[in-house]
Design a protein that fits this description.
With about 375 residues, the chain is of the alpha+beta class. The chain has 9 helices and 12 strands. It has 2 domains: about 210 residues, Beta-Lactamase, CATH 3.30.450; about 120 residues, 2-Layer Sandwich (Beta-Lactamase). Helix 1 packs antiparallel against helix 4, helix 1 packs antiparallel against helix 8 and helix 8 runs parallel beside helix 9.
C-alpha cells in the first residue's frame, strides 16, 4: 500500500508541476493577447466617437463662417460699387444724393442677407462714432438714423479694431439661443456691421449627428453654458455645465496648434448615467462639441475579445490538463518498472532482468 501510495503521489506531483508550467504559460499568453486586443479595441472606439465630435465641430464652425461671410458682403459702400446710385428702392425709401444711394445699397444688402440667411434676424450699421445709422429686422420695423449709441459696446469696439466679434450666447424670449456678430466695414474698419444670429441651424446640425443608440451630442459656449442640444426644452434652462468632469477636462486641455482636442473620458453624462464622452473644440468661439454614449453600449465591442480570450484559455487549459496527464504517465511508467525490478532483486529474485527501452538514463540504470 505504501508503494502504491508513493506511485500515486509521484504521478500527481508530475501532473501538478506540468500543469502549472503549461497553464502558467498559457495564462500569461492569454492575458498579454487580451491586454493588447482590449487596448486596440478601446482606441478604435474612442477614435470613432472623437471623429464624430470633430466632424460636428467642423460643421458648426463652417456654418458660422458662412454666415459671417454673408454679413461681410454687406460692408460694401457706394464707392465700392459703381452701380450703387442705380439701385432700386428699399423699404425705407432713401432718395437723396450719393449718401442716400449708399444707404439704399446697404439696406438692400441687409435685406438680401435676411432673405438668404434665415439664421440672421437683425442687422445694424454703426458709424465711426458707434451711432446706429440703419437697422433692418426680420420682425421689427426697419429704422434709419436712430443715432442709438453703441460706442461702448464690445461688438463695436472689437469690430472697429479690425476683429470679428462673436458675443456670448444669450437667450431670446427665454427660448432660443442667439449670438451677436460684429464685423468691420470697409478697408480701414472705420464703421461696423452687426448681426443677431440664431443658433437654430447649429441645433439642427447637432440633432442630425448619429451618435448611436442612447447617444446624443451637445454644445457648450465659452462660459460652459448649454447652447445646443437635440432636446430644445433643455436649452430654456441655459444650464451651466462647469461641474461636469468632461467639461472640466476639455477646458484644462492645451491642444497643439491645429488640434481640436484629445481623448474621450468616461464620466457622468448630461442626462445621467455613465457615458463615454468625446469632445472637440471650436477655437474661434471657445466652444466645445461633446458626443456622449452610454458607456455600456460604447464599450460593448470590448466583450468580444474578452470572450474570445476566455474561450481560448479554457480550451488551452483543457488541452494542458490532458497533455500533463499523458506526459506524467510516460514519465512515471519507467520509474514504476524500475521500482518493481528493484523490489524483486531485494526479494532475492536475481534471474529476471529489468526490461526498459527508454533510451535515456533510466534505461542505463536498469541495465546496470
Amino acid at each position: 500500500m505504501k508503494t502504491a501510495g508513493s506511485r500515486g503521489r509521484l504521478f500527481r506531483k508530475y501532473v501538478v508541476v506540468l500543469l502549472v508550467l503549461m497553464g502558467g504559460v498559457l495564462m500569461a499568453s492569454s492575458l498579454v493577447e487580451l491586454y493588447f486586443s482590449y487596448r486596440e479595441t478601446q482606441r478604435s472606439i474612442v477614435r470613432v466617437e472623437r471623429a464624430k465630435a470633430v466632424a460636428a465641430a467642423a460643421g458648426i464652425e463652417q456654418l458660422l463662417t458662412e454666415i459671417e461671410q454673408q454679413v461681410r458682403e454687406t460692408t460694401r459702400t457706394a464707392s465700392d460699387d459703381p452701380d450703387a446710385s442705380q439701385v432700386g428702392q428699399g423699404r425705407l425709401g432713401f432718395r437723396q444724393g450719393l449718401g442716400a444711394a449708399m444707404a439704399e445699397q446697404r439696406e438692400l444688402d441687409f435685406l438680401r442677407v435676411l432673405r438668404n440667411v434665415p439664421a440672421v434676424s437683425e442687422l445694424r450699421h454703426l458709424d465711426l462714432a458707434g451711432k446706429e445709422q440703419l437697422r433692418v429686422s426680420r420682425l421689427d420695423p426697419d429704422v434709419a438714423g436712430s443715432q442709438e449709441d453703441f460706442s461702448k459696446s464690445p461688438k463695436f469696439l472689437e469690430a472697429k479694431g479690425g476683429k470679428t466679434y462673436w458675443s456670448p450666447v444669450y437667450l431670446k424670449n427665454e427660448a432660443e439661443p442667439f449670438v451677436t456678430l460684429g464685423v468691420p466695414v470697409g478697408k480701414y474698419a472705420v464703421e461696423v456691421t452687426t448681426a443677431e444670429v440664431s443658433l437654430g441651424p447649429v441645433i439642427k446640425l447637432v440633432t442630425q449627428i448619429d451618435v448611436g443608440p442612447g447617444g446624443y451630442a451637445y454644445v457648450v459656449d465659452s462660459r460652459n453654458r448649454l447652447v445646443a442640444h437635440p432636446d430644445r426644452g433643455m436649452l430654456r434652462e441655459f444650464r451651466d455645465l462647469s461641474g461636469l468632469s468632461q467639461v472640466k477636462a476639455a477646458r484644462m486641455e492645451r491642444p497643439a496648434p491645429g488640434d481640436a482636442g484629445h481623448a474621450a473620458v468616461v464620466a457622468d453624462g448630461l442626462s445621467g448615467g455613465r457615458v463615454l464622452a468625446a469632445h472637440a473644440a471650436i477655437p474661434p468661439l471657445g466652444w466645445f462639441v461633446f458626443v456622449e454614449r452610454p458607456a455600456a453600449d460604447a464599450y460593448a465591442p470590448l466583450r468580444a475579445p474578452i470572450i474570445r480570450s476566455a474561450v481560448i484559455f479554457v480550451l488551452g487549459l483543457l488541452l494542458s490538463i490532458l497533455a500533463s496527464l499523458l506526459l506524467a504517465r510516460r514519465m512515471v511508467a519507467p520509474i514504476r518498472v524500475l521500482q518493481e525490478g528493484a523490489t524483486r532483486i531485494g526479494a532475492g529474485t536475481l534471474d529476471q532482468p529489468i526490461q526498459l527501452r527508454t533510451g535515456d538514463e533510466i534505461e542505463g540504470l536498469a541495465v546496470s
